[in-house]
Amino acid sequence: MGSKLESRKRSTEALKETSKKGLKESELNPKTLEFEFFGNDGVKFVMVSMSLVVMLLESVCNGENKCVGFSGSFSYLVDWFSAGILYLNVIGVYIGYVSWLVVLYFICPGETVKGTTLRNGDVLTYPTNGLLSAILTILVVIADVYLNGIGKMVWVADNFKHFVVTTLFASVLLSLYVYFMSFRKSSKTLLLSTSGNSGIFWYDFFMGRELNPRLFNLDIKYFCELRPGLIGWILVNLAFVAKQYQNFGEVSVSMLLVTASQIVYVLDSLVFEKALLTTMDITTEGFGFMLAMGDLCWVPSVYTLQARYLSYNNVQLSTFFSIFVGILSVVGYLVFRFSNLQKNNFRNSNNAGNEKFLETKAGSKLLISGWWGLARHINYTGDWLLGLSQCLATGFGNPLTYFFSMYFLILLLHRNYRDEIKCHNKYGKDWDRYCSIVKYRFIPYIY
Ligand code: NDP
Fold this sequence. Notes:
NADP, 20 helices, globular, EC 1.3.1.70, mainly alpha, binds NADPH dihydro-nicotinamide-adenine-dinucleotide phosphate, lipid biosynthesis, two-stranded antiparallel sheet, Delta14-sterol reductase activity, transmembrane helix
């Protein structure tokens, strides 16, 4: 294991060196030889499962069954699928929405920031105007509700299943587009992802072949990561708030707890949009079905399940329990935010806060004090607690609304596993030393 990791680390370093010297394609873009997700069959399974899960979650929680029992059947799914394709007005609204965000990407003011240095020595630039784009979009929706009432929002809630199918199709089409475009002829060698260049269609289609696909200066991966899906998450939640109001004549505390905490979470990620540029998604992953589907379809379809449930079920929480959920939400958010801030400030200000850290041969320093002295991924713990509080806000009437917590736990465990491998490859023995100082992954003294 040790020698395998060492050799991988050496080849990554060699790659960085050689790429700067303008070497041939095979040296700049090595073939992917190590497979994740159990390889080609594994990714096919994940793609089918992800697609089925978003559709099934809609089937078990919609206006017809009020999220109680399963009112669907296979034929229902097929009908729904074809209805989705024919639902041109939903498709039109979705195209209009994404186009609006593309326009805002180009015209909204915001600092232009540099990404990390790529293997070929290039540094790409990105606009950080996501927050302004979100605020403008929400203001347009609020203005429309003020002027015309909640009709359009209720329409979105009523047509939710068609939006699910539309975003699924959009993800497939976009993934196909970026996959085939990654073979285009270019004056400069295109930079491919080291994990999506196996030469096996389904595997590369899923993992993403090109690292930073761009269309007329629109960075497709960066755009998709935080805009259509995350802003869509807020809008769909607001649609279900409107639906609850239409159904019950009030907006419950439970609904307020869920939507307020999710809106804060989304706006927070847009306030810290710059931090996205150093995440694994931007620096390492190619853009393929995994990210396209996750960003465009999964987030607005699955993450809005709690609000959807509440729009058809007027859950009334006790005051005590509401306060408990509110406190858990705030605690989760603060752990998530302050731990991420501590790391960002440490890295970006070259340790202006005088934190305790570990020197490494790879060059980057590893924090071992404050939040990062407690556990190696304490930021994931805070994030998960915040998500749990949103599930708890739906009460205990239906286990379905806890789907998010279960899924998010698996996502974070898997992400932690991948990140630890990445860090082990990068830091080698220094990472072992770091793990012996910061012993726990998520919860101090427990795990
Ligand atoms: P992290 O922000 O935890 O970044 C991990 C990287 O940080 C490592 O690869 C390493 O990179 C560096 N690092 C690790 N330990 C230290 C240390 N002690 N000191 C300094 N740097 C260190 O991971 P993510 O990018 O996965 O997550 C960012 C946030 O996004 C998290 O809060 C997560 O919960 C959230 N998230 C939410 C998702 C959702 O669906 N809601 C999905 C995914 C993430 P380096 O090579 O620079 O050393």
